[in-house]
Design brief:
With about 750 residues, this protein is an alpha/beta fold. Helix content is about 50%, strand content about 20%.
């Protein structure tokens, strides 16, 4: 059995190499080399010969399968990319909302060749009425789903539709039927669960996280990720385990239980849309059930490998799926380490009575499973999300029982709601209480200073590499778990130093950092041991506050001394509530209230509830000490619109000055020059993200900046304007853009990093 696992592992390695590393001629050369080397191992003797043959042949077949799949299935469809075309297709998913667009998956069955899936995007009013099984006629501009990263979800092409019309009804396929069932359950859950918990209920039982990501402007989903609870909204093997626990309590006969498991697993996998995580769990459960009829002993590692083989055969580009990486990584860790770690953790209780041993066996086993699942998911989380949850084992222990009960009660309430909304609403009461508890746990523990480790810092990356080097050394040398205590404690002490010491070291001079939040602005200034934040908002990402928090925590900063806002537009302040909920903010300097927006009320209410001292800079200039530096604040110079009501900030440390004008237009800049004595500055944060209507010639002549920071992301406004870039170039100003460089820091000695 392990020989099969060896072959499949190298087959998968070939597919992963083809997806992530190799392309073009290099892919053909690698496949040919692996195939050519395989026969040479026939000349070897001994047991290792078979494994070498299986390894090389598996690698060669993985590469060749990817090439064949691409040539036979993918390439004919991709020939349409870059063109406009009319086609008919059958809808196989329910509509998904975006900002102004909606999207559905549709299956195209060409006259020659295999069917393939296209993602159809169109205005919401054209997409929302569509249901699985609808036959649609579409005229659209087509782009490659591979290039857009969609093909990891099975979508070959993306179609930006000019027109969509329903021409009839067709067979939606198994996937379409599952999507329709999931949509019905989603609508039922939304009817019976209260607004506060409905998004979590829907995400937990259907995997549709659209509403969940919008809860409290994304802060709830970020809290779940910080404490390591994101897996509960990614329908996976955990949910299938809970579901299969019900018949296991009622059916004792193994064969009868297997007969129930098979259709239940198929239905739930269809219902969940055959995501990689649920497909992996489903295949493993089916193989386990089938083994009962053949009286075969199940090998977990081989079963996991076979599940991976089926997924990659169906869709090699699933190797690009983060869901697949995390699901298989967690399961592999449990298969390899959970049993050994559980036995080691049970040793301290071996001298107790059987009753007390049973009492401690649950938490120790649960902790062993949690730690084992993290063995391979930690580096994956660091790579994909830039953070590692340190508090995950504790939170998993606390939420294990409430989570299983919440899932089963939520499924029950949603199922009953399909029959009767009244009965479903009654059943939803205890489920909703448990969901509120999960949200409270996630929000509370995510606020702890050391809940997560952020990989923005190279020192943190070095610690992770060192920790894994020690871990694998102990593993390879087969050193008993009881002797892991000293190196483990050493790593914990080093981790504490990595997280705490950077925040205790005073900053020399003044530094200004433009945090990459997409199309918006977020600045962090540090002087001595003090930290100031100027603006935090974005219109192109949902987590400006989370990105700021990640940056601050990576620097060992867990509080903000001074918050300053230029104005109340969303792209400058929609991340501020998350900052104030998570971090102590000692003082805030804000513009005057504005009837046109509501962010001022939200921020003022949060300031009052968190004890933040608020100062309004609406009429008179202010000068505030900030660490070893000072900040001069000028009030708005016009009252026509929100951009005209921007505050102006100049941070000063010795001869180093940083100027921030928000979205102030050019004519207000001229008024500022007439009413204020501005120094020659070293760093200018370019106004309005590089809009042509700001950062005028006279301002540049007056303040003579040496460097310019442009906080900008993907946008439809043309920011930064070529006019501004040319203007800055003519004035000899070095330009640093967050959309090009990511997060950028400039120090008072003009070092850029």
């Amino acid at each position: 059995m392990r020989k099969l696992a060896c072959f499949i592992s190298f087959f998968a390695a070939g597919v992963f190499l083809a997806v992530w590393v190799l392309s073009g001629a290099a892919l053909w050369i690698a496949a040919g080399a692996a195939a050519a080397v395989t026969p040479l191992f026939l000349l070897f003797r001994g047991k290792a010969r078979i494994r070498w043959i299986l390894s090389c042949s598996g690698l060669a077949l993985g590469l060749l399968y990817f090439l064949t799949y691409t040539a036979v299935f993918l390439s004919p469809a991709l020939k349409l990319a870059g063109h406009s075309a009319s086609f008919t297709a059958t809808v196989i998913s329910c509509p998904e909302p975006y900002s102004r667009l909606g999207g559905v998956d549709a299956r195209i069955s060409p006259a020659s060749g295999l069917p393939y899936t296209v993602r159809v995007l169109a205005p919401r009013e054209a997409i929302d009425p569509l249901r699985p099984g609808d036959r649609i006629a579409v005229h659209a501009s087509l782009t490659s789903g591979v290039e857009r990263g969609e093909y990891g979800h099975g979508r070959v092409l993306t179609a930006m539709a000019d027109s969509v019309s329903v021409t009839g009804r067709g067979w939606p396929g198994v996937r379409g039927l599952g999507a329709a069932a999931a949509d019905a359950v989603k609508r039922a859950a939304l009817r019976v669960f209260p607004e506060r918990t409905a998004p979590l209920a829907v995400a937990m039982i259907t995997g549709d996280k659209t509403l969940f990501y919008e809860m409290d402007d994304g802060s709830v989903s970020d809290s779940f990720q910080t404490v390591g609870l994101s897996h509960i909204v990614a329908v996976s093997g955990l949910h299938l385990t809970y579901l299969l626990a019900i018949p296991s309590l009622l059916i004792r006969n193994r064969r009868r239980y297997a007969c129930v498991v098979l259709p239940l697993v198929v239905f739930f996998s269809t219902f969940a849309g055959f995501s990689p995580s649920i497909t992996r769990a489903g295949i493993m459960c089916i193989l386990l059930a089938v083994s009962v009829f053949f009286r075969r002993q199940q090998d977990s590692l081989t079963t996991l490998s076979v599940a991976l083989l089926f997924i990659l055969l169906a869709d090699p580009y699933a190797a690009a799926s983060v869901s697949l990486h995390l699901s298989f990584g967690a399961t592999l860790g449990i298969v390899l380490f959970a049993a050994r770690l559980s036995r080691a953790m049970a040793l301290p209780f071996s001298g107790l009575s059987p009753r007390w041993r049973r009492f401690f066996s649950y938490p120790s086993s649960a902790l062993a499973v949690c730690l084992s699942s993290m063995a391979f998911t930690v580096p994956l989380s660091a790579l994909h999300f830039g953070r590692i949850s340190l508090i995950s084992p504790l939170v998993s222990l606390i939420t294990f029982a409430p989570l299983s009960a919440a899932f089963l009660l939520t499924v029950t309430a949603s199922g009953l709601a399909l029959v009767s909304s009244v009965v479903g609403a009654v059943a939803a009461v205890p489920a909703s209480a448990l969901l509120r508890l999960l949200i409270w746990v996630a929000r509370t523990f995510s606020r702890l200073s050391f809940a997560a480790l952020y990989t923005d810092s190279p020192v943190v990356v070095c610690w992770i590499v060192a920790a894994y080097a020690v871990f694998f050394f102990l593993l390879v040398r087969r050193i008993p778990f009881r002797r892991w205590l000293v190196p483990g404690c050493t790593l914990v002490i080093a981790l504490c130093a990595v997280m705490i010491v950077p925040g205790l070291i005073p900053t020399q001079g003044l530094t200004v950092t433009a945090v990459d939040v997409g199309q918006g602005q977020c600045l962090v200034l540090r002087s001595g041991t003090s930290t100031a934040v100027v603006d935090c908002g974005s219109t192109s990402c949902d987590d400006a506050g989370s990105r700021l928090l990640s940056y601050l925590r990576s620097k060992g900063v867990y509080s903000v001394d001074l918050l300053l806002l230029t104005h109340y537009h969303s792209d400058h302040c929609n991340g501020v509530p998350e900052l104030m909920r998570q971090f102590p903010v000692r003082a805030a300097i804000l513009p005057g209230a504005d009837d046109e927006v509501s962010w001022d009320e939200t921020i003022l209410q949060l300031a009052e509830s968190t004890g933040c001292h608020v100062y309004t800079a609406a009429d008179q200039p202010m000068n505030v000490t900030f660490g070893d530096s000072s900040v001069q604040i000028w009030p708005p110079l016009a009252d026509i619109g929100e951009n005209e009501r921007c505050l102006t900030f100049v941070f000063t440390h010795g001869s180093f000055d940083v100027m921030v004008t928000g979205d102030m237009p050019a004519y207000c800049e001229l008024q500022l020059l007439d009413s204020a004595e501005l120094p020659d500055i070293e760093v200018l944060v370019v106004g309005h993200h590089g809009s042509a209507g700001s950062t005028c010639e006279d301002l540049l002549d007056a303040v003579s900046p040496e460097a310019a920071l442009i906080s900008v992301g993907e946008n439809s406004y043309g920011h930064p304007s070529d006019v501004i870039l040319d203007r800055l170039s003519r004035h000899g100003v070095a330009v640093f853009r967050t959309d090009v460089l990511g997060t950028v820091t400039v120090t008072s000695d003009m070092e850029v990093r």
